Amino acid sequence: MPARECHIDLDPIGFERVAEHAFGREWRRVRTTLDQRIAEFSSGPGRFARLNRIQNYFALEVPSAMPPEIEISLEAFVNSESANFPDIRRCPRPTYVFDEFEQACDKWHDRGLKEFGPVSKNKFRDRNLKFMVICQESYRSKVTDFVERFLNGVQTQVQSGKAGPFDSGFSGKYRLNEITVQYFTTPDGTASSYSLAVDEATRNGNGWDFAIVQVLDADKSLRSDQSPYLVTKARLLSLKIASQEFTLETAELPISRLAYALNNMALATYAKLGGTPWLLRSPDSGGQDLVVGLGSANVGHGKLAARDRLVGITTVFSGDGSYRLSNLSKSVAFEHYRPTLVDTVVAAVNKASMDLHWDPHLPIRLTFHYSFKSFSREDVHAVKDAVNTIVDCKIDFAFVNFLRSSPHLIFDLRQQGAFDAMSRQFKGAYAPDRSSYLQLSKSQILLNLVGPKEVKRPADGMPHPVLIDLHPLSTFRDMGAIVNQIFAFSCHSWQSLNPSSLPVTIQYSNLIAKQLGQLSRLSSWDAHSMATGIHGSRWFL
Q: Which helix (H) or strand (E) holds 426?
């Protein structure tokens, strides 16, 4: 192939391969130095110093080079000592509820799960579960050990005398009865072999409740019909069987790290089974709340191919975080999202009013979270008109846009960062704490959802705040209530116990849009398989 027709794929894997070829045995040393330089460059102190140099240049050098009739002045950065600096506020930590009567509560979800068990613990009290496990024959022994640890736990001590994160395992932590496991192996890692394993497991029905599927990290780079992950997931979805995939590399983690990976996997598995791990104690607003999340994803057949923009209008929650989506999930081309939006909202409000037994004498608040574009006036009017035709009571609307690429940065010069045990360095210096926010105007707030502790590694540098922008046609305009609910929903994901950088409304919507877009590329994909049953579950976690 002519060199001019080649492209270097500079994602982390591609960059690693090119650099390893270029530097050979020296690559480890070069990579260590490079990581340190990147961390310095993108860190809070490094970025703040660079911005100051730019500011000084424009303040000192540029004016002297301009004609005398042109005056230029540059103000200093706005800081907490400035007269016009907005107040620094913090969102309160949400309260997690673990029973139907809001008696079993905790400010820490994982501690509450250990002490009280999940909200829906009675759902599985008299039920034995049946799991299938699909794995490659050559890894059967490692997979068996992994599944055993998943079900029964691994003993670790975070601090002296304190239990580890996953000592009691999936069965104990979620108060489950007996779980029967049966293994089905494949001779290799091809998608066709995995599909045949599903056929073998389901040939006689056998009433499976769940499937655990082992894949490899390298499988993530495979696309459409070559991906054992996607092909297996599609086959299981068509059979109304929820599944949880894990990589062999995860199974090989040291025990101290494996416990945390298993803890997150157990949470997602329980939610996919239809369980409710916890709910949120919602503030007494005197009304009835429904929150609708809208997300989008760019999907294509590879990095250089054309990509389709899909909008997933999918997630519907009540104010306490209850997942209310039934069979409303859709993933549509970007240009066709408006009619889907209106149809989804109407169906969601109808279903919620029946499920929640709304009092017609109390007001309803509908909040929309979206991140893919601003709502036009036509969009807002279409939604309002559609909802007002089916609900005979007072309705307040809030349309909230999340801008993750906001030009704003907030520096906390007192913040020295959090210690990262992996790299033995500090990360997130100058980053404001998670939950802190600044109100820029009556309709805009800068919210920090990634603080020093949430920065994954030093090289990730300075996190950006999220700009929350309330649409001018919104009738509910209490920004304090809106930002507190957004923060609570960012602590509410059933995919992972780690804090999220987005509220669960948008996170779930983006996950569904992305996965439906990927699945739609399969030659065997049948969209009707999502029509009932599994369609209303949390299969996408």
A: strand 425-427
- Structure confidence at residue 57 (pLDDT): 86
Structural contact between residues 287 and 363, judged by C-beta atoms closer than 8 angstroms: yes
Map tokens 């919602």 to a residue: 282
H or E, element range at 62: helix 62-65
pLDDT, tens only, 394-424: 889 999 998 877 788 999 999 999 988 877 8
Distances (CA, A) of 183 to 133, 252, 341: 5, 19, 42
3-class SS letters over 242-285: CEEEEEHHHHCCCHHHHHHHHHHHHHHHHHHCCCCCCEECCCCC
Strand order in the sheet with 436-439: 88-90, 436-439, 444-447, 466-470, 395-403, 364-370, 288-300, 307-318, 330-333
Those residues with Cβ within 8 angstroms of residue 184's Cβ, 6 or more apart along the chain or in another chain: 132, 133, 134, 135, 197, 198, 200, 201
Phi-psi region of 205 (alpha: psi -120 to 50; beta: other; left: phi over 0): left
CA distances from 318 to 361, 440, 476 (A): 18, 28, 16
pTM beyond 0.85, yes or no: yes
User: What value, to the nearest 5°, has the Cα angle with vertex 364 and ends 358 and 365?
Assistant: 135
Helices 191-202 and 228-238, packing angle to 10 deg: 30
Rounded CA separation 273/240 (Å): 11
Answer for the pair 209, 177: CB distance below 8 angstroms, yes or no: no
443: nearest Cα among 464, 465, 474, 466 = 474
Q: What's the pLDDT at 332?
A: 64
